[in-house]
User: Fold these one by one.
Assistant:
Number 1:
Amino acid sequence: MIRPALYNNFFFLLTFFIGFNSLYSQKKFTVVLDAGHGGSDVGANRTYSDIGTVQEKVVTLSVVLKLGRMLEKNKDYKVIYTRKIDEYPSLTYRTDLANRSKADLFISVHVNSSPSRSATAQGTETFVQGPNQNKANLDVAKAENDVIFLDEKDKENFASYNPSSPESLIALKIQQSKYLEASLTIGGMIEDNFVKKDKRLSRGVKQANLHVLRMNAMPSILIETGFVNNYDDAKYISTEEGQQAIAESIFNAIVNYKKLVDRNVREPEPEKPVEKPLKNDFRILLMSTPSKYTEDDPALKGLKYILPIKENGTYKYYYGTTNYASIRDNNLKTAKDSGFRNAMAISFVPNQKLGIGYYTLEVYAGKDKLDSKSVIMKTLPDIVRNKENGVFYYTYGKFKSMEEVINLQKELEGKGIINTVIEKKLK
């Protein structure tokens, strides 16, 4: 399980919370509970011969109502629901409601589904709005973000968002710097409870670009309570007992999270200086191997935001990128907790030009030659083909900096050319 080691670092948010000291003394702790999907949007679903049809919209509403009733019994909490019946509130409505309410916490409850019919994926996972904006990041959130097109206002508010634009990225980072650590903290508490109290498998706390979280002005999380196409998960989340247990685990985490917030507000420690960015970028080296893996390969242990770099026939797999020490350390812990015990942080000089050699992009490797009518061949007319040990390798371009080839990688992903690998050639 991935557990963010953030409890001792929570004072990072001290400045933000102290500014609201008087507010906390006057108002209840406001929690917005969002039951994912609803109405015509069923969400993830699966039919079984013995347990019947399991629908995401039904499970999420049941969990949220149970959780809300527990919170409402405590006079210190104010609960706001994005929906209490089988209806579909737009993503814009959900975030606007939370922001207008000046909520202290936003919790969106969902049910997961793996693309494979084998149903090997199992367990819970909690997402926070993360800083990485590559295609892998966006693909993680695609199932939840597809609902955006059900509402015209959502199209207007979200469709123009360009994850590659500097303006969007700057705005996103400002928002994340305020709420990321708090979101990771409450997410870690919830996943801990799922494991320790409910004895369930946790896939950890992860970062993704989720529209329902991106525009929230408060700590926000999206909880995937289990996989609908995994029989054991589906059976658990479809029962009253399972839904009650899930609600209790989330409730206990909220209570402990509020205690942590109150302690920091009422008994503040000396304010820590704002973290300054480091001179270099840092990526986490997971492993070096002659094998080439795609982003969903079990060898990557469910981690996303993977950047493979090939050098001298060896593929090196890097996780995440940041120029902040705290995020670097958290990424390293995430990698180690996922099973990469020998993972290490590697420094990269931004926009560094290679003195010798160049970077190129390996766009295909396989035993068969590419057809001239393939997307790759039609898109990249100047592609280079080599054959080694019975394998055809197709590479494209020569670049002096890694940033240049990463930009090409993103451009090609938009054209449907995926699973490319940056290759460093020294001669």
Number 2:
Amino acid sequence: MQVKRFFAADMRQAMKLVRDELGADAAIIGNRRVAGGVELTAALDYPMPAAAPSQPNPQLEAELRKTQTRIAQAHAELSAPVSLPDNQDRQLFTPGVAAVKPASKPQAVAAPAMDQRALDAMRFELHGLRELIESQRGSLAWGQMQSRRPQQANLWRRLQRMGIPADLARPLLDKVAGISDARQAWRMLLAHLAHAIRTPEQEPLEEGGVIALVGPAGMGKTTTLAKLAARYVLKYGAQSIALVSLDSYRIGAQEQLKTLGRILGVSVTPVDPGQSLLQALAPLARKRVVLIDTAGLPANDPGLRLQLEMLASRGVKSRNYLVMAATSQGQVLKAAYHSYKQCGLSGCILTKLDESASLGEALGLAISQRLPVAYLTDGPRIPDDLHVWRSHQLVSRAVSLQSEQDPSEDAMAELFAGLYQQPARQAG
């Protein structure tokens, strides 16, 4: 039997070390918190084969059942009520109640602290066991997928090369599970993906009204607004369009918009903090299109809340579009959506496609939140690099931007482990 200890910053890294050195059949016989991370003790009770076949592993499944039993026992110990002697002061064990014990029994004062430390240690072990099970289940599920359904496994890889999130990829793959031909399954999968993408029936500029561009700093709001304004002026002239700037926080932001207005011959109205947006829009009521540039502020900035309240007020009646850079990570895009959704979003605009290595994450957010993709930008030219695309064109662009290399086996196993985590996170 081979027994070895592994040290890492967290449970996932430790599990990766175990898989890399001992293989997927190694049994975890202990885990504990150490300075700087966690320690795993793993054992392998038979010689490692030269090439591990991709097939179900009864030993690993048995170990998973043992680990699940330990978790159930830990849950029972945590939920069991603490029995106290009748003569013991129960105030010491009542949450939120401060109690003073006589000096004759000082050892009783340390009991709650000791109990809390024991509970914290048990909770840490329980958390570690949960991560361990999720990681093992992810590796097992991915191995079984490759052995039993190789076509589905290949489709999983291709979607990950496009950057499509796992929570979106799974229902798409379920829709083509019954198609035996690989090429036909891929074409149908892309068709389902295109069907899930929403685009506006009418271009926002053609519809007219008040249009506000919102989003974090660096997403390309001001540049996109310049492209929209130039696109409209070239088609309809400068008499029926106006620009409004709410960005008084960034140095030179309003001056930049005024310069654009002078070039296009369009009026620009700056609105400072504390001023009424409704009053600023009143003189512009006869304009067919009013474009509003907003400031990109941190989520915890009071100015952001004030700005979103102005846009969401009843009298403004603006259509707000979330500007998202395709170069941003998925977590950044999700955080941006949750920060700006309170003003009411009519859709989104995808920018910086020329700098992006993937389009899947941005499309995944647009699909999951049912945000129509109004415009795309793929360069600095004004207004040439502004486009209105249909859903099938977006899918084609996502395919063209896909990575040339397949994701690693560890990455796929971690992805499947994340699928097991999602129900618990949603419940919490």
Number 3:
Amino acid sequence: MTRIGALNRLNSRVTRIEHFGMHVDLVKTSRGVVRIGSMPDISKLLNFHGFREEIVIVPPWKGSMAGDNHTGEEFVLWNAQVKGSIKKAYVGAPEDLNLIYRHLDETFSFFFDENRINIVKKRWLKKWFDRQPASPVYENGSLKILIENQNITLTDQGRLLYNQNELEDCCNPDTLVEAVLKKTDRDSHHRPALEIKPIGTGNGFVGTVASCVVRFKNQVIWIDPCGYPAHNLARNQVHWDDITHIIVTHNHEDHVQGFSACLKRAQKTGRPINLITAPSIYEVLENQFTPLCPDFSQLIRLIPIVPGKKLSLDSIDVECRWNHHFLPYGTLGLKFTGGGKSFGFSGDTKFDDRINDLVGREELLPQWFAACDLVFHEVDFDNPNSVHTHWKSLEKLIESVPGQVLGYHTPFLANAPLPLVEQGKTYSL
């Protein structure tokens, strides 16, 4: 993420973080800092500005073409799980609390066992997420939170600290999106060769999340749409409406944080999303986002992809595999072939010789990328025992693959021990 949300102090008690027309408010109270709402990359924004909140208010789920006010919370929890934190009180109407809790339970609660082999369900959500219904009032000492009549108020020690309806809103996110799109050139230029442009190379903790656009002839395929789609694509000279297909590799938040915005764009334009993914992944997406967009099934044109079977999109072929990752619905690795050249995209996966020997799946071996001229492979520099591919293991894979292999899904290191994907660079094959 190259642009960090602006900080706006509304008064001595209330601070607003604004990002591309979206915002959250943070209120100082006798019971600690209270955050109202969420947005994509909120964990990064909070860390950058040095906030630590004790209470989170979950409002009714709303979305725009910039994103929605629930997405972002999964990585608040991952940040707590990885780095340690307090158990936050999540306050809201029962229906809103139940909705976000169920959503998080479908993604955050799964992990590997201690051997990094089998997927198990953890009790982490209950560890970090303390459900506190406001029906319509939540009280904590002298602090009172009232959620009623489409408004949120905070009173502390008899003093009104926050009235959402009395605070001026930011710019309308949809208005900003349209302004960005108006300034971004359309590009229908026919690509005679495979062209790959990384929109982001980071992850849920740092940078713009891993996301890239693959072009060939008239196809423009976006892998794992990142948050604030119009803005992040435009920053890399891509017009959002030029995207012909979207691929979702799996359901973790750092790979779908822009999905709600894409749904809202489809509502606005009347053009359904051509979504390429596995049926199991689609089923979870449908379950997760239908409450936000009841017309979900009309907004999506599903193009199912099945590991081991080639998908032909006019001039470009797409193949996939099941990766070794920790969601039970599956995580996809990808290969694209066009014009006699091939591009490999690992997706999130734990590539490790010991694990590969135990799992015994040929598609997880380096040979799966043997025909690729270029491979983007995820990498972790810090922890050999993490759920991602350690750079020493990636070094072995690089030695086994004839084509060029570049690391991504990591902080960009100027002096990394192996070559990394450069965000915004165009790779032509």
